[in-house]
User: Which sequence fits this backbone?
């Protein structure tokens, strides 16, 4: 199967439209239709219904395989490119809330031991970092999220290792009536307005229904999010240590559901020495449960 045809197929499957896929890929709509027809002829089955555009059962199966195939091809390309890269390179990818004192300390120790290390940091949302790690675009990935104390992050592939666990709190303005509460049940906050910050702290991933958006923030700056909360534009669940450092904010403990903020390091298909060393530094000493991030 031609990888170009698989990419076109995935674009149609993800967008649900031949025209939208054409726009994403900078093709004409007729070119997209022709490529899907060629792929279907090669496999001898219909992959997509046309009106409406939807995956057939065979298309669903191909989508699972195609995603893995394209990820492995991207990882192979990235690994070959490393052959011409100078030694001592590290590309670190992380979600905004994954940056913490232990991460900063580990990176400082790594750079002190390797003064000529060529280091680059990519900050993006969790889906982007997970995809970049799977494709080999980054050497090490750190992602975060809010889960039950005994649960790992719900990642698409197993293999991540927890490096930090800290308390989760509801961040409110310091003068907010809730700031004086000793604890909060998130289910009781259905009438409150929340800030939807997909790249930083998406409330839609919290294990509670009925919360509503007061404002959407599409950036990745933690200080902007905390500033919006302090100005009264909505609430958010954040790590307690981050709230404690921000003026104008108060952190209210969450009594139900029980939640912690977890940071995990992703296993990448290929790791060079700087990434392996950073992983060791992050894992030693082991993070103690509910330690400040």
Assistant:
């Amino acid at each position: 199967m031609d990888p170009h045809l698989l990419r076109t197929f995935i674009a149609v499957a993800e967008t649900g439209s031949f025209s939208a896929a054409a726009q994403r890929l900078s093709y004409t709509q007729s070119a997209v239709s022709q490529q899907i027809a060629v792929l279907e002829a090669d496999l001898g089955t219909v992959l997509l219904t046309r009106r409406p555009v939807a995956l057939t059962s065979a298309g669903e199966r191909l989508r699972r395989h195609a995603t893995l195939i394209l990820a492995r091809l991207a990882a192979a390309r990235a690994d070959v490119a490393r052959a011409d890269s100078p030694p001592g390179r590290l590309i670190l990818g992380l979600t905004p809330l994954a940056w913490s004192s232990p991460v900063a300390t580990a990176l400082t120790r790594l750079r002190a031991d390797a003064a000529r290390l060529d280091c680059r940091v990519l900050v993006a949302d969790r889906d982007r970092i997970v995809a970049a790690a799977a494709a080999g675009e980054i050497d090490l990935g750190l992602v975060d999220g809010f889960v039950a104390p005994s649960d790992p992050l719900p990642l698409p592939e197993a293999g991540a290792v927890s490096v930090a666990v800290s308390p989760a709190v509801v961040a409110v303005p310091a003068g907010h009536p809730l700031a004086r509460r000793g604890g909060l049940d998130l289910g009781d906050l259905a009438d409150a307005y929340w800030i939807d910050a997909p790249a930083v702290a998406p409330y839609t991933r919290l294990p509670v229904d009925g919360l509503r958006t007061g404002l959407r923030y599409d950036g990745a700056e933690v200080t902007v999010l905390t500033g919006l909360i302090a100005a009264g534009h909505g609430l958010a669940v954040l790590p307690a240590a981050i709230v404690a450092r921000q003026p104008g904010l108060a952190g209210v403990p969450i009594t139900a559901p029980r939640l912690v903020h977890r940071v995990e390091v992703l296993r990448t298909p290929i790791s060079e020495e700087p990434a392996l060393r950073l992983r060791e530094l992050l894992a030693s000493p082991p993070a103690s449960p509910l330690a400040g991030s």
